[in-house]
Amino acid sequence: MDFFDYMLVLSKYALIIFSLIVIERALRSMLSEKYDDEIWAYVRSGKERVPVCHWENLIGRSPSADIRVYAPGISGVHAVLCRNDKGQWKIYDVFSRGGVWINQLQAGYGGAPVRDGDVINLAGTRLTFIELEGEKIGKLEKKRSVAGSRVFPAVTLVWLTLFQSTLLMQLLMSCEPDYSGRISLAFVSVIVLQWLCFTAMRMINKSGFELETLAFFMTSIGISVAASSTPEDMYKHSILVIASVFLFILFGWWLRNLKRASSMRVPFAMIAGVLLALNLFAGNSIFGAKNWLTIAGYSFQPSEFVKVFYIYVGASTLERLYMRQNLYAFVGFSALCVTALAFMGDFGSALVFFVCFLVISFMRSGSIATVVLSISSAVIAGLMAVSARPYVAQRFATWGHAWEDVFDKGYQQVRTMSAAAAGGLFGKGAGSGWLQSIVAANTDMVFGVVSEELGLLIALSAVLAIAAIAVFAVRSARHCRSAFYSIAACASVTIMLAQMALNILGSMDILPFTGVTFPFLSRGGSSLISCWMLLAYIKGSDNRREASFVVRNAENYTRPEDPRLKDEGVSRDPKPAEVKKA
Predict the structure, then answer these.
(1) Which of 75, 340, 494, 558 could disulfide-link to 134, CB 3.0 to 4.6 Å?
(2) Confidence of residue 107 (pLDDT cuts 50, 70, 90)
(3) pLDDT for 538-573, tens place per residue?
(4) Is 479:355 a contact under the CB 8 Å cutoff?
(5) CATH code for 41-143+560-578?
């Protein structure tokens, strides 16, 4: 063995050590630190005082209710108590049996305002609402644990930089000299970019950087895949990485204002519809799926951006979460998206959208019956699609029989499995594999490329990174300030997990091959931008103190100067004869 061989072997071990350290530190920081709820108000019943920790709170007997009330006549979900950005509270009756009253004013389905000291009457059960002002909220906020206090994010970023530098060294040892400058520029760009982002977050006193660290970790592996398969496009890929991170920050800033988020759901739904219509009627067909659109010489996949808009529309009903007309409207929008994707032949994306729909619809309605009905309808639609699209039926026929036709129907799966096996635990080295020369290897079969070149352990590290983000999002969902962030975060990780599972299991012939991308790893600007924008939703769910730039500090929220003089509701103390629904 010469010097380069020794360096290659050492770099393989170093990559595994650095990747495991990065993921372990990010996991320990996200999951082991104390998670204190924000407190915005209290609801008092007798001597008991229950904290109000969210901006949309379900009240009722159900175990899923934020404020549980055990009394005769109380429905499973009796009412919804909501707060807006201005600090004004409102309560809505959710088809309860016993009704909701505020100081003798019945709160109908349109809701009624609630102020400090008001008495909430739920089917005869009286609760007193105690509102906290900005100063009291600030005192409670200072008692909460600060994110990143146990595991310093800067140290984790140093380990990530070592991982990226080692990966670059492997690529420079195997690539052609003409491309070494482009590949080096791509890695230097992402290293500088991640440190700039971290520095900017510290300047605004934000210390939670675990999600971004894991995203940069997977993006770096994606850069390695692109450098191995298409080194001539590394300038373009570097620009796409920078654009993705910029849109992540921009979209996160947009999500800070919940009123703005709620008001833009209809325009965003229209944009999604226009993108799908353009794709349906003017798109280009590749490998049987009409899912590409070319504008001014640049190709992209509209369905990747529709994912972002779809979650936005599904999560942005910030009040009256259980109103049926809101759910019906979302069901109609979902049917439009899935049907359009099915007509395009992009059944992989259609399946991902459908799984996301199940999560959003359940979180919005709490109804198992809705989920069962949706799954039944999807099974019928899937059977119709298999019979109507011959190439879809062919993929199902090949499923589990790839080795029976290694030169035709099972061509991609067989080569992916062979390459992954050839890579072993430690891989052949970045840029040294042969699978990257197969069509669509760097997108639909990227797990095989990573396994062959970097080894199974690094490929599983990417899987663990996605799983860590998913676990964090589900854990954070219970503590989110708003249902918007909670629903959007869970829907985002659902899409990531579904794509990852379909990509891995499909290319390994465990599931039918659907041709979907692996989040952050697969080459392609549309997919990368979409993943970083989905990460903004998950970042919004991070409600730890000083953790997320998407969430404003609680002490910055104060009540209006005189809320009793100006409100969206009717008079505070109507006479008994004037009692009516708001």
Answers:
(1) 558
(2) confident
(3) 999 988 888 889 888 776 665 544 444 344 443 333
(4) no
(5) 2.60.200.20
pTM over 0.85: yes
Tokens describing residue 565? 């003089």
Stretch 299-322: mean pLDDT, rounded?
78
Which run of H or E residues covers position 105?
strand 105-106
Is the pLDDT assigned to residue 9 strictly greater than 50?
A: yes
Identity (one letter) of the amino acid at 387?
S
The answer to whether 468 and 214 have CB atoms below 8 angstroms apart is yes
Strand order in the sheet with 67-68: 67-68, 56-60, 79-83, 89-93, 112-114
* For the chain, percent of residues with pLDDT exceeding 70: 83
Alpha-carbon distance of 21 to 30, in angstroms, equals 14
The answer to whether the CB of 70 falls within 8 A of the CB of 45 is no
Assigned token pair, 329? 């409207």
**Residue 532, SS3 per DSSP:** helix
146 in helix, strand or coil? strand
| CA-closest candidate to residue 225, choices 442, 500, 515 | 442
Q: Which residues does 307 contact at the CB level (< 8 Å), separation at least 6? A: 352, 353, 356, 495, 530, 534
Q: Domain residues of the chain, as ranges? A: 41-143+560-578, 153-551
- Please write the tens of the pLDDT for every residue from 483-497: 889 999 999 999 999
Give, in order, the Cα–Cα distances in Å from 33 to each of 475, 476, 509: 12, 12, 39
* Helix (H/G/I), strand (E/B), else coil: 364: helix
Q: Report residue 339 as tokens.
A: 């049907």
For the cut 70, the answer to whether the pLDDT of residue 324 exceeds it is no
**Mean pLDDT of the residues in the chain:** 82
More confidently predicted of 13 and 366? 13
The DSSP code for 33 is S
Give which of 249, 267, 251, 368 is closest to 313, Cα–Cα.
267
Residues 6+ apart with CB under 8 A from 284: 290, 292, 293, 294, 299
**Cα 348 to chain centroid, rounded:** 18
How far the first Cα of the chain sits from its last, in Å, is 83
Phi, then psi, of 145 in degrees rounded to 5 = -70, 140
| pLDDT band, very low/low/confident/very high, at 220 (cuts 50, 70, 90) | very high
Residue from 173, 30, 4, 130 nearest 474 by CA: 30
Residue 55 CB neighbour total at 10 angstroms = 23
